[in-house]
């Protein structure tokens, strides 16, 4: 049992730190620290910087342009990037479609699509959920009907994150209504410029525009855009759900959030004392700090298992559940810490002559509400518990 | 013992609920609540005519209510409709003016609009630990300081301001045009303002205002509890409807036992929140009233957060959207805890009795 | 809305207080306060005192010897009795069998059984649960087979509380295996002296003997001992489960436990201060005090509804759930308050020359463990949640 | 980074687990744990021969371990078997003796039995805030005071006692026959004693013992965490087996989603408890070691209560019975929090860093 990093891992961490210190633009890290919205250009800029260093596609094998990192190296990079307030990687092309194509795509698809993800030519988004198929993806209805060497697509997708920036979408579509619901689903690539596609913004609870609805009306795409076999898309969907995703526990986010919380609670005042000196508040902080310290080790233990056993087991569900609970608790504490100053709309607070709170804290209530999503999206925590149940009770 | 609402109050509640449902429904509410001036003057006049403000003031001061149960009846209805109008500012101001022996006729008829400017950046929930200073200036006074997140301050003609003078904490009136007022909207709807006082001319209302401010804040906290109870009732009903109707995996999601148990736990907690609010209303202004209000604000704060978070979680994505009404209820239920003392602030007030 | 008691109710409360002051033996209230075990004689003594005053059968109508109290009067009596540390009423004859016979029994059964419950001639116990039928009572297997004008009973019952003191038992028995499982159950009275019955103690987690197993081998009882119709016992079981039971919220127990906790926390010391001055402990105490204050009102509200609407609705499930949670939290805090002194076996703590803690606190850990039962027995809290679900979701 | 247990430690764990399963199973355990003298001398000798005590002491002091991971390996095995023997008393005593530069040969070979008498009625978890007094008496010392709930005190030949003298807190050795010792059994099994010192002759081991006591208590708290992790693993497995097998309403109760979700939440929390215990073991005696042990004791205390209560609740009545092994695990898991500082005590130690 040895919890320290190997000399190679320490060297790697130092390399990452130096890179972040030298290459991460201050405008970007400032925005991240403040919780401000990143523009499309901001995200593309950071992708380009990482790509220049060969570090963009952390989960890809080297032959396709990945850095060939071990799980521990990926963990180190994620944690350092979060501590440096680097923008997160937009995952749809890099962490989702990329691994899918590498596993299921034809050589031609890989050659066409992967380089354009790396160099930023394409921005992919995801067409999975539908209004009637959220947690129960197998019940999706949007259909692709074969017509010669084209599919004709009709239906609706929703919760398409950052779709407003995308020029491509990968979709799960129904290609057959026979057999079990899972059996007639296919994974298809679609160009968003194709006639018949309309994307509409969904305004979220806190007022932001992050997700979209996508409507397909007689949209024609070549059959060559099918990934894997027809009607076998469910295999790909499951691969993505249980695939070892980078940073599923979100430890980096939480570490960053805890440091911000600690600073905030040292600054806000209640009854003539710093909030951090209030025992009730400090007790909550200490509890979540403890949970987070444990989470770091749980994360490393499971990475270490994954390295040994190949595929990650249901443990990734555990990481998702506890990791998101910790992040939400941190968001909750930051919101509380602000007191009444949490309530004014952030834009108005910042644009007035006198800011109510430091710029890097203005968005804490917004972030709290927006991050209610992390226990819902990507397989809700209830779904994760069902997955764990199956594994643990051997049902 | 009798848990029925009196006939008079029931009639007020009915007419207010009907008015809010017909004339201030959720779509209209959202259009008002999130855009300056965060206020609909016509609807506000109609609400005043219905007697919303009279109900908050005792008879001897020209109203027809003013007890704990009058306050809860009004605010429960406002909470059900998520109403963004500045009734809370009127309640607290009226209570302060009555304590100062001032006339509240112009307030209850809607002729003048007051806001209580008590909170400060470094003393968000505290009555006494404030920095705003009052200096005598001839017959009058001048105030300097900053009052923060003044609810209703975006609409006020006149502010009731707490400030320290040589001998303690006094209450002063300041005309809005004597202060620099920065209005803004709130994440949960409605408006407030920062109030900057730079040697602003002020009228002294009370030299020792600590008790009066405490009482007014108790009334305000009780009002927020009742508002939350109203909002929680609606939220729970929305959730139960959704659980009955929404299908996933070929069944209504309400047939999943894990969700069932969470939903009924939430419903039980709402009944507890209602109970403590009733108790606080019965004791407002009397023995143990202040401690009971703190009990209520703590329990309601805990429950409202639970209801908000669980409602979003059990709905899934839909309750994360602006379009779906439950998201606005969820925001209000959480942000209520940031007004007039959060759960910890009030828990500490409850704990204080043990130190004896 | 008026939360004060009416003048009549105040007068009643004063009468109850005077009665308890004058008639409740100090030996009994001392034992209750200490959490010591009451002997059979102790319980019989208290029953006899109450019966002398006509207050023993609080839930019975006057014509059968009840006091004819309103729900609010019952509540007042329960709360005052708890505050005075009176022993609880042994419920099996008085609160369970009595109301059942009054509702379902023949005139002869009422005339024979009820007076003997009041005067203490009979001590009844309950034969409901079986090893394979706990929460799922409908699956019970112990059977009564008709043979002429006798039933022949075979099978096993368990969790029979205070069965060691009883001379009678009322049982749910299977009289038919046809139809739905609920349909073949009958409610039968059995004399424990009948040949073929064996009662064995069950030792509980904390070491106490409170419950028993009962084995029936070819036990013959007259058919006249059937209550209600044959195969309709389920109706009676349901009546008992949802019947308005006195004090289901246990408010009186909790009020008493809170006062004891407050005294204990004022006496125990940590870091040179009273425990009650420790903000983390005081915060927990305050939270449960608040929950309890709310519970008192919830209880009164539901009593008031029951008075108006007759039958209590699913609200009694709500009272059970929250009421037991509060009691368990109070038990938990009292256990914690004792620190290391909670761990020695109480008998040993008290019998040594120097007591570790005051006698009335010695049994706090025992009580904590024993009271884990209150969320399990009498329809577990999970079953209560299922009942509430049916009512609230109209399933 | 490497989460594998070293070969040596794995061998010790295997042989200890095997010994405890074969020779100290739950029925034997219960017969020993709840009846005086709460101790099986023969089995204890066998455990000592296996190296249980040597593993707790560093090589330079005659053992073959003494690091955080040595401690956790031993106590996890003890926890799995719910072993009632006084290994914790030996660990804490050995750590104190080594710090005092004393020989521990007689301790690790089982020749002498020590117990650390540190806790007092009014200072149950505190090192410094104690009342026991030491007075110089010729070459030696005399101690007066009362030490409370001394684990292993029912068997000890010699007590290591903390007491205040003119200049602070010292550590003293007192022979058992010089004290009045009242032994008793514990609700969760095993024994302890009250130790009354009435001018008892004592040998001074350390004049300033605060740091050494702190370190020994850290090691003890870590041991309790590992013991809890072992006991929680067994408890979870018992629960999962029961959920798979027990039928109600015609289905296994493990098919009810409300129970499923609670069971997996519990399992996830146990993994968290294991993680923080590993972290605390890695830091014991080093930078931040004491604070990390407190983190572990807090999280383990929270988790152990949850596991205990949920296990009883999900089992229903059966786990309320003495006959069913889970009830004994449940008791131990709760009562662990009453030893060497409860969840609040350790949370406050974690919070202390924020005050800076």
From TrEMBL, chains A, C:
The keyword ATP-binding does not apply. Its cofactor is FAD. The keyword Flavoprotein applies. Belongs to the acyl-CoA dehydrogenase family. Transmembrane segments: none annotated. One of its GO terms (molecular function) is oxidoreductase activity, acting on the CH-CH group of donors. Pfam families: Acyl-CoA_dh_1, Acyl-CoA_dh_M, Acyl-CoA_dh_N. Coiled coil: none annotated. It comes from the Bacteria. One of its GO terms (cellular component) is plasma membrane. This is Pimeloyl-CoA dehydrogenase large subunit. InterPro entries: Acyl-CoA_Oxase/DH_mid-dom (IPR006091), Acyl-CoA_Oxase/DH_mid-dom_sf (IPR046373), AcylCo_DH-like_C (IPR036250), AcylCo_DH/oxidase_C (IPR009075), AcylCoA_DH/ox_N (IPR013786), AcylCoA_DH/ox_N_sf (IPR037069), AcylCoA_DH/oxidase_NM_dom_sf (IPR009100), Mycobact_Acyl-CoA_DH (IPR052161). Keywords: FAD, Flavoprotein, Oxidoreductase.
Automatic annotation (TrEMBL), chains B, D:
Residues 115-182 form the Acyl-CoA oxidase/dehydrogenase middle domain. Its cofactor is FAD. It comes from the Bacteria. InterPro entries: Acyl-CoA_Oxase/DH_mid-dom, Acyl-CoA_Oxase/DH_mid-dom_sf, AcylCo_DH-like_C, AcylCo_DH/oxidase_C, AcylCoA_DH/ox_N, AcylCoA_DH/ox_N_sf, AcylCoA_DH/oxidase_NM_dom_sf. Keywords: FAD, Flavoprotein, Oxidoreductase. It holds the Pfam family Acyl-CoA_dh_N. One of its GO terms (molecular function) is acyl-CoA dehydrogenase activity. The keyword Oxidoreductase applies. Residues 6-84 form the Acyl-CoA dehydrogenase/oxidase N-terminal domain. CDD domains: ACAD. Residues 213-352 form the Acyl-CoA dehydrogenase/oxidase C-terminal domain. SUPFAM superfamilies: Acyl-CoA dehydrogenase C-terminal domain-like (SSF47203), Acyl-CoA dehydrogenase NM domain-like (SSF56645). PANTHER family: ACYL-COA DEHYDROGENASE (PTHR43884), ACYL-COA DEHYDROGENASE FADE28 (PTHR43884:SF20). Belongs to the acyl-CoA dehydrogenase family. This is Acyl-CoA dehydrogenase.
